[in-house]
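Appendix C reproduces, verbatim, an entry submitted by the partner laboratory led by Prof. M.T., so that reviewers can inspect both the input and the predicted structure.
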Amino acid sequence: MNQILLPKEVELLLDSVEGTTHELEPDSPHRPISLVGEERIVRGRLPGLEVIAEAFARVLRADLTRHLGRNVGVTVAGVGTEKLSPYFNRIEHPSSIHLFRMPPLPGQAALVCPPIMVDAVVEASFGGSPLRRTRKRTTGREFTAIENRLMAKAAAVMLEAFKEAWAPLYPIECVYVRAEYNPLTVSLGTASDSAMVIAIGLELDPTTAPISICLPSALLGPIKEKLGSGAMRTSTLDRDHRTEERIRGKILAAKVNVAAELASGRIKVRDFLQLTPGLILPLGTPANAPATILVEGAPKFEATIGEHHGSRAAKVLRRR
């Protein structure tokens, strides 16, 4: 075996003994990495992820309100770095944990909903009071099939909103993988790996339910520079019209009450008390006068009343 060292190898050994470091050549295409510190992959604040979190809250507010049929307040409680082990150790058991992928990014992420969130969703789905149900929950009780099914639907709404929040910065897909209920069985990496956690507060009067999305550092590694760019504070997310168009579409699809008023008048109480079947009640409106179209009780149009396909109908003449 050849035991002769090359001159360059001797130089490196001498440098290590003397405590000096060997600098890379300026034109070297390589860059140093740390194999022992996973937290180095994504470090510090990520302005881009904070903007995504705010966009997620805006979209989720509208989507959950529509899905649950009641007003839902959504706020960003924080965006920060945590170790995976302590994060999952403090999650209550059981919790509704939904694992999903974010292609083209590698690995999996987790949407975590504690029991109080499950209770609030179930009560809201059936028109009850979230406060009444959360007081009755038995600690440690497993979720029922109905609870799991309702939470799966709610999770689908949340993931769709999360996907939309990413679109202007880095389009992704949110592909559902499976649900877990024991946080200690969830594996998104090693115990020492770090992750970015987006904490969200949901307000379903009178209940406040926290949820969180755990994004492992390895998943965000390929786009860390884009997320860490200070320019993301003025990202195109702020100029994006997706949310505006969604709200406009939902308003245009909303239904309003419409009524046709043929005539109206005023009578004394004594005359009202003497009303009997067959009695003629003059209203003081000309027989050929158009009817008034009321929209949510407010007069908006004048119309003639007739028949259309066997049903009463109104033909609009003019706006009032």
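Strands lie at 73-83, 96-101, 108-113, 175-180, 194-204, 207-216, 258-261, 291-295, 298-308, 311-319. Additional entries are available on request from the coordinating office.
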